[in-house]
Specification:
This protein folds into two domains: 78 residues, SH3 type barrels (Roll), CATH 2.30.30.140; 30 residues, no CATH class. It is 18% helix and 24% strand. It contains two helices and five strands, in the order βββββαα. β4 and β5 form a beta hairpin.
Length: 115
């Protein structure tokens, strides 16, 4: 199974080839990663319009544009899978599953210690 990661575009590196630079991952050092956004550029949306957008990226290609809420949700889930459940906020999920549940009564995320 392949996983596309949410990343934010910070600059256009090569407009002719639709190459964009991505914001660094948390804690990453070095040069910004670049990927092709050619799959997302067309006559209506030029490559410059992608700066600031969140995308799903896999194997050097931007596959889809997503909104910031979706990107942050996915990043939280990946953080939880890495063993960092402290960053996981399930309040939106609880509100969606039970609309009558107010935010104050929603269960607080618990940190699970791996033994």
């Amino acid at each position: 199974m392949c996983i596309a990661l949410p990343r934010k575009v910070v600059a256009v590196v090569d407009p002719a080839r639709a190459i964009v630079a991505l914001a660094a991952d948390d804690g990453a050092a070095g040069e910004a990663e670049t990927v092709s956004a050619a799959l997302l550029v067309d006559d209506e949306r030029g490559v410059d319009a992608l700066v600031g957008a969140w995308m799903l990226v896999h194997a050097g290609f931007a596959l889809a544009v997503i909104d910031e809420e979706d990107a942050r949700s996915r990043l939280q889930m990946f953080a939880a899978m890495r063993g960092d459940p402290g960053r996981l906020d399930l309040s939106d999920l609880h509100a969606e599953l039970d609309p009558d549940l107010n935010a104050a009564a929603a269960p607080k995320p618990r940190r699970l210690d791996v033994i």
